[in-house]
Design goal:
Blueprint: H1 22-51, E1 65-67, E2 73-76, E3 84-85, H2 93-103, H3 115-128, H4 138-147, H5 154-170, H6 173-183, E4 190-191, H7 193-201, H8 210-218, H9 232-248, H10 254-261, H11 277-286, E5 292-294, H12 299-316, E6 321-328, E7 333-338, H13 366-376, E8 384-387, E9 406-409, H14 410-415, H15 419-429, H16 431-440, H17 466-477, E10 483-484, E11 493-494, H18 502-513, E12 527-532, E13 538-544, E14 548-555, H19 567-580, H20 604-607, H21 617-620, E15 629-632, E16 638-639, E17 645-650, E18 656-660, E19 663-669, E20 673-676, E21 682-689, E22 695-702
Parallel strand pairs: 1-5, 3-4, 16-22
Antiparallel strand pairs: 1-2, 6-7, 6-14, 8-9, 10-11, 12-13, 13-14, 15-17, 17-20, 18-19, 18-21, 21-22
Helix pairs in contact: 2-8, 2-9, 4-5, 4-6, 8-9, 9-10, 13-15, 13-18
């Protein structure tokens, strides 16, 4: 409500007079009463007029912002009508002080319309015969900006005054100032102090120099005629007037004002931040209407990763792009994600997010087949296997170099990425079971036409995404238990079912850490694997240390071959470059139950792998009535994860050795039974082996 202050003035004491005629006093009294009544009536009419004002929509739309983990802006998006308008953030107090001093000195006192300013403007106009100064308050300017109304017509001014009075009744001064900071025009399609600060200075508005603050105060008065990139002198003149007024008001010293006036105005518009642009775009599309989207992205690591990706891509040329996912596998937070080498629709197709594109994984799935075989107890890193020409039905795969190594250990087969041994393991474990294991780790195979998985999936004969590969290797790093990697705070979730046990996961990681790194770097720091898809279309490298997992892809987004592109030559150096910017966290030690012995010390069935068609004579014989079998627990049993376990066998010949998930837990037992340690929640495979090397197994689930 507008209040008109009245003050009771007392004049000097007057001399006593003789009593006057009451009729002589009645006229002034009635006149005063009439004036007061008229003022009260006008006041009530004004109050009613303001109260009936229809307010415009006060929820001003702002663009979506995607933020790094520390709150820094990664990328901002325009509002629906194409304007750059952002939610206000912290603003330098000097800018606020300059703004109110320049535009509306009595902003804190008036009720939307400043009668003092109105009288001053009217007096100056009468004296000079033209408009010398305006009388618009900040609240009136907000009223005009909200309705995008005219500035010159008297009808527009009346509407602004009415709306300003209504705004003051419904909003606080801070809320009105917030609207101004959000809506102030800065030329072209830029509105608001924060967007303007990013546009002209490349920084947020919470720390500004006097010259910068003064420019942001001066531009909204005439945003197009004072645009620094088009009219730098006009912008400087307007800015300097604001600085002079600030010095007169004591906001800054005269020396600071002179120094600020000597600074040039910016003469080019800066691009708005676009860090992790493809990730930001994906998050904005998945959160429609969100004003701010926080992420787990580490701004420093993201910038370093983008620089490494750009450098590696430019070194290859020929439209080669690259992508990267970097995450903390301990908590599942994605710290950096680069979807393309160049964020542009150029020759490298920078508008395609290659972290989400379905591509062939090459040989990067082989470690999971070994992990499953180790977990089943059918193989050990020192188990020998034949790498010789082998036909699997009508399919006869070849090694990468078309050479065969003969008898090798599982360790050597994985380090050298041989094809025949891993396909033999896949034939025994089963392609469907491999696909299910991969899915438990977050890798979902895409097969042509929805076909069932075949043996070729082990060599890259299916589609996966780079982010899924990072998921799977994070599970290896976590002892076989997967976690859904996420760029959103709190978005990472541990998976309920493990891919396989911690012993198998450690064995696979230990083998991969022994692979010879590129460019003479020390080995043992990173467990890593490369992959190359058919026809040299995709070069991949994935690895982890004790804290981080990184997945790298290089190739052409359109899927055309890159001659001479191999994972070991192209992607592996980039993988190690990324780990060079990360803390060097050691890989974990082996779990206590891990069997680390040479081949000669392994139980007889684990010394040499014998798949179907190559079985030993003992394994090939029909089962006799007294043949070894595991009677307890039965296959498929579900048991308590906290209770001790008893394994019982029947048949066979003493002594007996019992294994859990491929690791011996009771060796050379004279009786076909043993108390064994409970491995804890999850799936477990129990195996008994007798003196003749015959074995029997059962899979159980512990709750």
């Amino acid at each position: 409500m507008i209040r008109f202050p009245f003050s009771n003035r007392q004049g000097r004491p007057r001399k006593a007079h003789a009593a006057r005629d009451p009729r002589a006093l009645s006229l002034p009294v009635f006149a005063l009463a009439g004036v007061l009544a008229l003022g009260a009536g006008l006041r009530d009419r004004l109050d009613d007029w303001v109260a009936r004002t229809q307010l415009p929509l006060l929820e001003v739309p702002v663009g979506t912002e995607v933020l790094a983990r520390d709150g820094a802006l990664l990328r901002a998006f325009q509002v629906a009508d194409g304007r750059w308008r952002l939610a206000p953030g912290p603003v330098d107090p000097l800018l606020i002080a300059m703004l109110t001093t320049w535009e509306d000195r009595r902003f804190a006192e008036h009720n939307g319309v400043d009668p003092v300013a109105l009288l001053r403007a009217a007096r100056q106009s009468l004296r000079h015969g033209r408009v010398v100064s305006g009388a618009s308050t900040l609240t009136m300017q907000v009223a005009r900006l909200l309705e995008e109304g005219p500035t010159g017509e008297w009808q527009g001014k009346i509407r602004q005054m009415r709306l300003a009075l209504a705004l003051e009744r419904n909003l606080s001064k801070d809320e009105i100032l917030d609207l101004y900071l959000r809506l102030a025009p800065y030329g072209a399609n830029v509105e608001g102090v924060r967007a303007a600060s990013l546009l002209w200075f490349g920084k947020e508005a919470h720390r500004l120099t006097p010259a910068e603050a003064a420019l942001l105060v001066a531009l909204p008065q005439s945003p197009e005629r004072r645009r620094p990139d088009r009219h730098p002198q006009a912008a400087k003149t307007a800015r300097d007037r604001v600085l002079a007024r600030a010095a007169e008001a004591g906001l800054i010293s005269e020396a600071d004002a002179r120094a600020a006036m000597a600074e040039p105005v910016p003469t080019r518009r800066r691009a708005f931040p676009a860090v992790a642009p493809l990730l930001a775009d994906r998050l904005a599309r998945s959160h429609p209407g969100a004003t701010r989207i926080g992420t787990t992205i580490d701004l420093r690591l993201q910038r370093r990763a983008e620089s490494l990706i750009e450098r590696a891509s430019k070194a290859q040329g020929h439209r080669v792009s690259a992508a990267l996912v970097l995450a903390d596998h301990r908590n599942g937070e994605i710290l950096a994600e680069v979807g393309a080498a160049e964020w542009a629709a150029g020759p490298s197709s920078g508008f395609i997010d290659m972290t989400q594109a379905v591509r062939s994984p090459g040989s990067t799935l082989k470690p999971f087949v070994y992990g499953l075989a180790f977990d089943d107890g059918i193989a050990h890193p020192e188990t020998l296997i034949e790498d010789r020409p082998t036909a699997f039905g009508h399919w006869q795969p070849q090694n990468f170099d078309n050479k065969f190594r003969g008898t090798v250990s599982m360790r050597q087969a994985l380090i050298w990425s041989l094809n025949i041994p891993v396909v033999k393991l896949a034939e025994v474990t089963g392609p469907t079971r491999i696909a299910q294991t991969l899915a438990r780790g977050g890798i979902n195979l895409r097969l042509s036409g929805g076909a069932a998985p075949g043996l070729a999936v082990t060599l890259g004969g299916a589609g996966v995404t780079l982010e899924e590969l990072a998921n799977g290797y994070a599970a290896l790093a976590r002892g076989g238990t997967g976690i859904t990697l996420s760029p959103l705070p709190g978005g990472a979730e541990p998976r309920e079912t493990a891919m396989f046990g911690p012993v198998a996961a450690w064995q696979v990681g230990h083998i991969m850490a022994q692979a010879l790194p590129p460019t003479g770097r020390p080995s043992g720091r990173i467990a890593w694997k490369t992959g190359t898809s058919y026809g040299n279309r995709d070069a991949l490298a994935v690895g982890y240390n004790g804290g981080y997992v990184v997945a790298v892809w290089m190739g052409r987004p359109d899927g055309t071959p890159v001659p001479g592109a191999f994972g070991g030559d192209l992607a592996a150096p980039l993988l190690f470059d990324v780990f060079d910017i990360l803390p060097d966290i050691a890989l974990p030690p082996p779990p206590p139950q891990t069997l680390t012995v040479p081949n000669a010390a392994l139980p007889l069935p684990l010394r040499r792998f014998a798949p179907a068609g190559e079985a030993s004579a003992v394994a090939a014989r029909p089962a006799a009535p007294d043949s070894l079998r595991l009677t307890f627990p039965p296959d498929g049993a579900e048991m308590d994860a906290k209770s001790p376990l008893t394994a019982k066998a029947r048949g066979g010949r003493a002594p007996y050795t019992f294994l859990v998930n491929g690791a011996p837990v009771a060796i050379a037992q004279p009786q076909p039974s043993a108390e064994i340690p409970n491995p804890g929640p999850g799936f477990a495979r129990m195996t008994v082996i007798d003196a003749d090397g015959t074995s029997a197994s059962a899979s159980i689930r512990l709750h």
